[in-house]
Amino acid sequence: MHPILRDPRRLALYLATWAVLGVLFASLVAVTRQVSLSAAAAVVIPLLVVDGLICLSAWWLVRGTGGYSMLELTNRTMSASMQASAVWVGLSTPWMVLMSKSGVLPLQTGEILVGAAAVFIVGVPLYGVSMGIHYLARVVESAREAERRVLESQVATREAQLRALRAQLNPHFLFNSLNSISSLVGNDPEGARRMCESLGDFLRRTLALGARESVTLEEELSLVERYFAIERVRFGERLGVEQIIERGAEKCLVPPLLLQPLVENAVKHGIAERIEGGTVKIAAAVNEGALKLTVENEVDEDSGARPGQGVGLENVRRRLDVVSARDARLDTSRENGAFRVTLTLPARPAPADAEVTHG
Question: DSSP per residue over 294-358, as a string?
Answer without folding.
Answer: EEEEE--TT----TTTTHHHHHHHHHHHHHHTTT-EEEEEEETTEEEEEEEEE--BPPTT-----
